[in-house]
Amino acid sequence: MAKKTQNLNSRKLIYLFLFIVILGLGSLLWYRNWQSKFEAPRHNTQMVEFTISKDKTLDTVIGDLQYYDFIKDKEAFRYALEHAKDTNPGKDSSLKIGNNTIDREARYSISQSMTAWEIADVLVNKGEYSPCNHGCPDSAFNPELVPGGDLAPTLKEKYSWVKTYEDCTKAIGHDGGQLSSEQYYQRTGIRRCVAPDGREFTEGKEGWSDVPTP
Fold first, then answer.
1. pTM value?
2. Residues 149, 69: contact at Cβ < 8 Å?
């Protein structure tokens, strides 16, 4: 009887030990997963100017940062914003999160290599006043980013396929560019095309030249 009781107690101790181990491993995995949500999404990326205009909401700001791959997790970033040390009291129009503030009409230098805590510190404390009295840019990011967070191609990269006058005429559109006038052709016998990236092509001639700046 004593032996059975001893075996039962031993099993209980083993089960208790296993329970403690499983609980500890579960807690460790949960903690690591939680901490990973604050990590930088990328490495070795350049600094980008992020502008918060006067009509932006906190949800929009956080959504933009996640959409363009500056943060991994919205709720983790909210936590970082709320618990960052706010040493720069915001203006009346500031966004509020807990006791902290984020200035609107301000520009912030951030990168995708920063942790959520680092970006939170920048937004809470390091805004540079940037009013849009003459209209805000289309993009909140400078340089411009494409969905997902990669840098938008430069005009030179975007129009690298333009090699001839005929290509140039097809490229003219939203990004600019222009054709010489019919009057110019009648006067000179030459047709010219300026591509959106600033290169000038002449009909019937190979190559291109840079348009001289005024």
1. 0.70
2. yes
